[in-house]
């Protein structure tokens, strides 16, 4: 299974050599080691929620004290990779993914299929023979809400309707919690987040209705597997891709998208700014199992040859419709960049660093008016609700360095984003709020607290933040520190940063490094929040580590390939993967072996004694006992120090009589 | 200068091909780009404190609004690389580094040079012909305190004596603060740490006398450049090196040490466990500009063929003297692993993971007694004070996974380490305390708070902590998150973790990745604490970024080579390094250019207006004003919204009349 392949049909126009592409295709579709795609059926047969099942080996028998042949049940992990990792599905990039949501959308009877694209630009491109050879071949007619209808998940939620998407998400977020065998987990500090152990469809509906969570899934992107972004759900991550004026082809972007979702990207933003943006986007959406976000102003700017002040509402509006009908699931819209905030950035060290923010600032200065994003905000809502495109209200005035963090321009814009959230909610349009940026650790929480307050708990979606400016080349790390912290404080989705941030365009390795780094930040946040069951994977991997089940340790890791490769650099032989020693210490001495002796020893002590605190020694340390983890205090027995002494002496004799053997034969 | 080379003589026994070694030697001694080694003289000519001077280019003239030809003064950074980056010094690894502290030690007149090594093992090895070919050729006779004398820096400090080492450190920690031109920095949250803007020798003396900081410098390691570890100084990092039973040669370890200090390691721990530990250590110490730490129990264990229960106080004592006379600056000693704590680890998921801790646990169980490290602790202090070796009291019961964090075994041991700290201080022996390990973010602060309380503010020295267990292969990142946070809370030194942690032995790349990642964590902590001047480097780099001074941006980075390399992947041409656009956006559009337009615009507004808040809009938002950064509120003018409107209209006309040019010619 773990090496099973399946064919992958590729775009005719691909500009890469077959061999490289075929190898890449294998990379993109190979099952992860010891992993199998499984689906959990919901209340109806067409609700099939994917998960990755990781098969674990049994605990070894013989040899060491605790090696008892115990069966270790398979472990299930949240899976964003779509059917690319399902060997039973043949991938045809030229046709796109199966449309799993199509039936649900039709059933609701509130949408209609249009005769054709309704944006001028979309029609223009469809007629353009120059792009025919790179165009996606099977473009469906777009779907739109019937006149007067509102097709957003928020609208349904507020009507009390539980959609199949909501049920799908409930199953997905629950992650087979109830089947976990190792439920050990420490209490977290959630800062007001509140996640039930089992996520019900009703809980999902209620969170969406309240605006605390969004389900980005445009009715024109039926290929997407429903997912949710909200403080009371698993912390999500986004990966940015997109070609630029400096190159990168459609193939590369589609492959980056697939690569990113393989490693755990929950959503993808297509930030293309080069040529053929429209065609590139079509290819990405048709083949993407996760929601796609864009920044429409980027494309609008291309349409006016990069002259910001030439932008108009009409051009922007047509761009929104063009992209909504392709199936973009959320739009970053910098409607909070108001004329009065622009001069507040003048004394900054790095001014305005958001592209969208500076485009709008430029427009505001030139026309000396509030931007059309702000003045036409309700018109934008009218478009969004006909396709169920969610807002990602952009932080156009986010700080570009530590010095500019948390300033008036940034917080002034945030307040306006909070006001616009209320307007969007009036239309039942889903909203999340974008956040910084570059912020020192001690000033991160202020961002989260203000966002929750000003934006009425709409989901926060932050870029990092970077906690120092001095490490270009390592900004995936400078930002992961801030991302983990703000995720803990309540951010719902973390936008990844790659090692190339500030320096260049990320390649495939950079994308993977960014993804894994952000999966770490998101999971560290889930753990600190006390998200139910979050620690189960840590426990399973640690148990495998302790029992020298090397392969299980690799297979449970966020990146099994790298873990295995690093291990093999030091201990190449397969035999070593079942070796009872760590590659650090070598065969002669290993602390874990000794720990097993300690366990045998303690196991022989009088019942209840093994975790006795050092009696008189500690009992007078009120402050210590007070500090000690309650779960552990719960296990403390009542034996006296004398009893412990006695038990220990017995064990000492037994231990010595058995020849004080440090290493027993396997 | 930046490519200047100097010769480097190499060990005769080296087991690598000349070519590779010579290339490596160049790697190890090449000056960093645009950097020059400078020395600041203290109150006497033989106090010469090294710093790295980074030359910056001028702000460009013409073209953009704020490009005014401004001179950007050179930037000075703390430099741990020793004379390896000083082209005026020829390196001879076979002779070792210059002994810069020798005269200071002699002057004090409280030490004597012995006739020879006083440890049995040291003498044995000196006589061993089998190791003659790999032995360091110029071993000096060891130095020891005269009978009844105490030669620790803490002892001097408590006598009110300011040593040259203390003055050296005061200059080094001050980092030319008073010469900084950009003093902009946000207030930090120090959690009780208290660092003056200018560090005086008296402040250093007082911190050492109080035990809040240590100066690890054995009188037998006069080559080391004095440095300090304490909560009220810059956060430091340690890099572990050392060969193991699985290989790695002396050359490789010496080169790893040099490589680690080149990138910023403040101390090095030699954790060698393989053969020739003694000889390897000699080579490392003689050539190390930073303090060297060891875990003597590792070597003691080798002496009893890995059978922990065969360890004796006599063997351990001889090992301490052997290593003290070689010049080891601090010893990790796991004296807190008491018999009564061992059973507390039995119910753990991963038991005891510290090698030293498990060795001692094994010994305790076998003998059913408290360990000789505990029962002979005062004897150990007597040895330490004759050479000025500092204690690093080991956390032998640190958690090996999140589940085991903050438990009774860990905190019980911590309490004992606090008691031992008092004993060591009674002898004026310097002490730092080792800490975990694996801890979820929400449980990190408890570790710091308890350590400060139980150990009377002795410096804390932590490994990470790792904030999740699920990313083997990326544990430099899982741990950097925890390291940055605990550094912020008050940890004085962070022990690095490499990507190979749990998997294998780090190679040169892993060492560098670990170092840079930990420099990031330490600096992020300094920033969050509000360490005086910490933000200056961030500001200088951000200013260079904003002004498109690409080379300055690279040269100010923690890793200039990688930053430049990543940039060149996208924009290879040198021309691009002076290009007025970022590699992300390309030549057509750049947000920073627009920001410059905004500045020109704001600059033309009526005085005091440019940073006016949006008057009525914000003034009723008491909570916002309340939250806003005080530095910035300080700049807010009083102009009314009408005045702003008027000013803006004028500017709008001016802007348009000038042809609304987005890009002016350079």
TrEMBL record, chains A, B:
EC category name: lyase
GO terms (BP aspect): thiamine biosynthetic process; thiamine diphosphate biosynthetic process
Cofactor(s) listed in the protein's UniProt record: [4Fe-4S] cluster
Assigned EC number: 4.1.99.17
Any one GO CC term of the record: cytosol
Annotated Pfam families: ThiC-associated, ThiC_Rad_SAM
Keywords per UniProt: 4Fe-4S, Iron, Iron-sulfur, Lyase, Metal-binding, S-adenosyl-L-methionine, Thiamine biosynthesis, Zinc
Annotated binding of [4Fe-4S] cluster, by residue: 582, 585, 590
Binding site for Zn(2+): 438, 502
Record's function text: Catalyzes the synthesis of the hydroxymethylpyrimidine phosphate (HMP-P) moiety of thiamine from aminoimidazole ribotide (AIR) in a radical S-adenosyl-L-methionine (SAM)-dependent reaction.
Record note on quaternary structure: Homodimer.
HAMAP family, sorted: ThiC
Name the UniProt record assigns to this protein: Phosphomethylpyrimidine synthase
Originating species: Psychrobacter raelei
